[in-house]
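Why this split exists: single-chain examples teach little about how molecules sit against one another. For that reason, every record in the complexes split bundles all components of an assembly together and asks for one structure covering all of them. Below is a record exactly as it appears in the raw files.
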Amino acid sequence: MKGNVRKSMTWLHTWSSVLVGWLLFAIFFTGTLSFFRTEITYWMQPEQHAAVPSEKALEHGLRYLAINAPNASEWQLSLPDARSNTLDLSWRDANAGNERRRGPRVMLNPSTGEEIKVRETAGGNFLYRFHFELYGIGRWIVGVVSMMMFVAIISGVIMHRKIFADFFMFRPKKKLLSWIDGHAISAVLALPFHIMITFSGLILLGATLLPFNSEERVRHRPQGTEVRQNAQQQNLASPDINALLALPISSMIAHAERTWQVPVESLSITHPGKANAQFTLSGNNRTQLSAGRGGSSALVFNAQGEVINERPASVAANASQATYNYLDMLHQARFADTLTRWLLFFAGILGTIMVGTGSVLWVVKRAKQQLGEFGFELVRGSK
Amino acid sequence: MKSQTVNRVAINRERLDVALRTLIAVALGYAFSAWLSSAIANFIGADGREHEVLVRMLFFCVYCTFILFTFIFDTTKKASIVMTALSALALCLYSISTGL
């Protein structure tokens, strides 16, 4: 544009953010809340509040599955952990084909073994899904808006003459100047976070935004008929509850916890109740963020309680994959403990304030000259 | 009256200027970024999943830089010439990298 680089960047910074500011605010805000989506769901489903972690959780889970899913080809038990007090069960029904990825799911009270019927609400998952796909409207829109945000952040850095001096300046009760200072403080205080979260958000939406780049990953998935045939070939006798409870599952868990020095989080049982049953234990034993979502190792036991396989954590095959995994894990805070999660939350709140103050700043700055003009009223109305 | 007409012409010219730059930044920038990031990934010898994630990461950095530069030039003519030339160069690099 006409003028120097700083003027051009100021123009670009203003327009790339003000046009989509209202949507950006919603995306940033819901994304920030999504750091605590498990806790929000817990709060919105008071039925869960009665659940108390118990040592009998495993016994209750196995008993429930033996009664309600005797013919399943696989059982999954997610034990209570720091973020959830409930015992979550799911199973893959051998006769149901492969229509569902995880099959039916239920939630139990670990201390009583009673099924918890939660109310119909998506809870924190609503915010989470809204954050990146606006509930059905499209990831494309979120992708475009994120790209505009990325341009706004970078141009915002370039346009600043004294970025760190501005950070230490706040002039209260001076309408326009107060908004400018608030915008600068919230932007600079968490600048690395803003850049990271926007860039990682973009690459997570890469499959949608870059259709030319999608790698064809053809996986052979057995069709429903194949699964049914396999199920019929197996002798599907109902598992004996007493025999199940007599299995050395507690010693398997103790062995895994001794090995990893972290609690076991989930147990998967394939061919439950059969002689060839396998017990796969996994926990939050990740040692490398760059390994991504498959970065936890697992131990596989047979029905006699002997370790038959030690499944190592996956390792990023190359630097590109490792970088991508880092960004993925950072964006979704998959590694974060409570303190880190709160830090990320506050950084997200600062980002939301940055977008909000930026939008208000635009309106306040032009209120005197452009009041009543179509463009001004349109942007003001959208805020 | 005359000054009002001149003013309106200037405003319309500025609007056209912004529209053209936006078109160059968005459309040509997308093509440029796709070609350049794919070419770099090809030259590095990335394959399969590595190629996919590398292109994803490079693409958005290149795209952002392209957009910023499109709005830095003082005239739209200069911006369109330089950016078209760069895009042609990126296309050449992409063609060479794929062996076409």
